[in-house]
Design the sequence.
C-alpha cells in the first residue's frame, strides 16, 4: 500500500523534475539543471524502488515497470552527461526530454505493476527482461547522442565527443542486448523445448541486433559521411524503443 | 576474394537479411500467414520446408520467404568467412594485439553460432505440442514410445486452455504452483531398458540425447468429468550444447570489446574517429559535396569496433 503510494508520488515528481531539468538546460541555467537533475533522479530511484518493493523483484515487464525503468536509466545517463570534461548540455537536455516522454505515456496507461506471472521467478526469465530493458536504454541513449551531435562547421571537438559517446553506448547496448538474448534462448529452451521460435518477437530481436551490427561495419566511404553515420548509429536505438513501445501500449489497451 | 570480404558486401548482405526479417515480421502479423507461421515450430524446419510447397498457399509463401532469408544469411556467412581469412587472420601476423585476437574470435564464434542454428534446423528431430492425457502414448522417431503415466495438477483446472496473454495474467505465482504441478512419463526404447521421469514446467527431462519438455497443461472437457493432460515437446538436437557454448563465449568476447570501447585513451575507437574525421576533411577540401571523391579512399580501409 505504502509502496504503491510512494510510486505514484515519485512518478509525478520525476515527471515534473525531468521536464524542469530539460527546460533549465535549454535556457542555459546549468546550476538549476544540476539541482533539478539530482531531485529527478532521487524521485526516479524512489519510483523504481517502489516497483521492487511491490513485486519483490527488479522491473521486468508491463508498461509501468518497463517504461518507468527506461526513464530511470535515461535519467542516470542524462545526469551523467551534465558532468565531467565531456559534459554536453544538448545531449543531457535531449535525454531528459526522452525520459519525460516515457513518463508522459504512463499518464494514460494504468500505473500498476504487472501481475506476478509464475515464470518471473525463473532467473533466466528475469535476466532476459532486465537485460533487454537496460540494453534498450543504452541503445536509445546512443541514438540520442547521434541525433544531438552538431554539424562539422559547429565544433569539431563537440562532434568528436558525441560520435565517440554514441559509438561506445551502441557497443555496450548491443553487448547487453546479447546477454538478454542468450538468457531468453535458454528460457525458451527450458520452457518451450527449443531455443528459437518463428514469431515476430524473435525476428524483431534479430533485426535490432543486425542493425547495430551494420552500424558497426559501415564501409569507410559511407562512415565518413556524417549523415550516414548519424542514421546508422541512431536506427538501432530508435527502432528498439519504438517497437517496444508498440508492444507495451497495445498490451496495455487491448 | 577481396570483393567477397569487403565491408560493402557485408552491408549488402546485412541489408538483405534485414529486409527478410522485416518481411517476416509483417507476415507474422498478417492473416493467413500469421496462422501458418506457428507450424514452422511444430517440427524440424527441414521437415516443414519439404511439405511447405505442397500445402496451403500461405505455407508456400512462407517457404519462399524462408528460402530468401537462408540465401541472404548464406551470403553473409560467405562474407564472414572471407573477411576472417583475408583480413582478420593476416592482421595477427603483423604484430597481433589483444584487440585483433578478440575481433578474430568474435567472427569465428559467430560462424559457430550460425552453424548451431543450421544444426537446429536440420539435424535430429522435433515434435512440438504433443497433447497426451494420462495413459496415452506417442511413438517417436527411432522406435521410442513416450507415455504419460500420471498428471498431477493441483491448481484450478479453470486456469487452463487460456491464450498466452490471458495465461500471463492468470498464472500468478500464488495461483499456479510450478513445483506441485507435474507429469510422470515413461520412455520405452525399442532396445534397452525403459526409463521414467518427472516433468515440470521449466524442468525438462533429459534422456539418451532427447530433451522432453512440459510446455503447458491442457483441460479435456470431452468426458463427463474434465481431465488434465500434458502438452509436451520432444527434441533431439545433438549440437544444442555447442550452440550455447559458442554463444556464451561470443558474448564474453563482445563484453570485453565493449569494455575496451570505454577505455578513454589509446583505444581503437579513438583511432576510428581520427580516421573518419581525416576522411571527412579530405572530402570537404575537395569542394565536392557528398561522396564525389570517395574513390580516393583506400579500398581495404575498415570501419570496425
Sequence:
Amino acid at each position: 500500500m505504502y509502496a504503491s503510494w510512494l510510486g505514484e508520488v515519485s512518478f509525478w515528481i520525476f515527471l515534473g523534475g525531468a521536464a524542469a531539468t530539460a527546460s533549465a538546460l535549454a535556457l542555459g541555467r546549468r546550476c538549476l539543471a544540476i539541482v533539478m537533475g539530482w531531485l529527478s533522479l532521487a524521485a526516479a530511484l524512489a519510483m523504481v524502488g517502489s516497483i521492487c518493493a511491490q513485486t519483490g523483484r527488479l522491473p521486468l515487464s508491463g508498461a509501468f515497470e518497463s517504461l518507468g525503468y527506461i526513464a530511470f536509466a535515461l535519467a542516470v545517463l542524462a545526469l551523467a552527461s551534465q558532468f565531467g570534461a565531456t559534459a554536453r548540455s544538448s545531449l543531457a537536455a535531449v535525454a531528459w526530454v526522452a525520459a519525460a516522454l516515457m513518463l508522459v505515456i504512463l499518464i494514460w496507461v494504468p500505473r500498476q505493476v504487472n501481475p506476478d506471472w509464475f515464470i518471473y521467478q525463473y532467473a533466466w526469465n528475469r535476466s532476459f527482461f532486465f537485460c533487454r530493458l537496460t540494453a534498450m536504454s543504452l541503445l536509445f541513449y546512443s541514438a540520442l547522442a547521434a541525433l544531438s551531435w552538431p554539424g562539422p562547421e559547429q565544433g569539431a571537438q563537440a562532434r568528436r565527443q558525441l560520435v565517440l559517446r554514441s559509438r561506445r553506448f551502441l557497443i555496450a547496448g548491443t553487448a547487453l542486448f546479447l546477454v538478454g538474448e542468450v538468457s531468453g534462448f535458454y528460457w525458451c529452451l527450458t520452457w518451450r523445448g527449443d531455443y528459437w521460435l518463428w514469431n515476430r518477437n524473435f525476428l524483431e530481436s534479430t533485426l535490432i541486433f543486425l542493425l547495430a551490427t551494420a552500424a558497426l561495419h559501415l564501409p569507410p566511404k559511407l562512415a565518413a559521411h556524417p549523415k550516414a553515420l548519424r542514421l546508422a548509429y541512431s536506427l538501432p536505438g530508435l527502432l528498439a524503443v519504438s517497437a517496444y513501445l508498440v508492444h507495451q501500449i497495445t498490451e496495455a489497451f487491448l | 576474394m577481396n570483393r567477397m570480404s569487403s565491408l560493402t558486401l557485408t552491408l549488402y548482405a546485412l541489408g538483405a537479411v534485414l529486409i527478410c526479417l522485416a518481411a517476416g515480421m509483417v507476415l507474422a502479423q498478417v492473416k493467413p500467414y500469421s496462422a501458418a507461421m506457428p507450424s514452422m515450430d511444430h517440427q524440424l524446419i527441414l521437415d516443414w520446408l519439404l511439405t511447405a510447397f505442397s500445402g496451403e498457399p500461405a505455407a508456400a509463401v512462407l517457404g519462399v520467404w524462408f528460402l530468401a532469408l537462408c540465401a541472404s544469411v548464406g551470403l553473409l556467412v560467405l562474407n564472414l568467412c572471407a573477411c576472417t581469412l583475408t583480413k582478420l587472420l593476416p592482421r595477427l601476423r603483423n604484430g597481433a594485439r589483444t584487440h585483433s585476437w578478440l575481433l578474430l574470435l568474435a567472427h569465428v564464434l559467430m560462424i559457430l553460432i550460425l552453424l548451431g542454428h543450421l544444426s537446429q534446423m536440420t539435424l535430429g528431430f522435433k515434435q512440438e505440442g504433443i497433447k497426451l492425457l494420462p495413459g496415452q502414448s506417442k511413438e517417436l522417431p527411432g522406435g521410442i514410445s513416450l507415455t504419460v503415466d500420471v498428471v498431477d495438477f493441483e491448481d484450478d483446472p479453470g486456469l487452463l486452455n487460456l491464450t498466452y496473454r490471458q495465461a500471463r495474467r492468470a498464472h500468478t505465482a500464488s495461483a499456479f504452483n510450478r513445483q506441485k504441478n507435474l507429469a510422470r512419463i515413461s520412455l520405452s526404447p525399442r532396445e534397452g531398458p525403459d526409463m521414467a521421469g518427472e516433468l515440470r514446467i521449466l524442468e525438462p527431462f533429459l534422456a539418451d540425447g532427447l530433451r522432453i519438455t512440459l510446455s503447458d497443461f491442457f483441460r479435456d472437457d470431452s468426458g463427463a468429468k474434465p481431465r488434465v493432460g500434458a502438452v509436451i515437446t520432444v527434441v533431439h538436437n545433438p549440437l544444442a550444447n555447442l550452440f550455447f557454448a559458442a554463444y556464451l563465449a561470443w558474448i564474453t568476447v563482445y563484453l570485453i570489446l565493449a569494455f575496451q570501447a570505454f577505455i578513454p585513451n589509446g583505444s581503437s575507437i579513438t583511432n576510428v574517429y581520427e580516421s573518419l574525421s581525416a576522411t571527412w576533411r579530405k572530402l570537404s577540401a575537395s569542394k565536392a559535396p557528398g561522396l564525389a571523391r570517395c574513390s580516393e579512399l583506400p579500398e581495404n580501409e575498415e570501419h570496425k569496433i
Observations:
- Residues 60 and 130 of chain A are 6 Å apart (CA to CA).
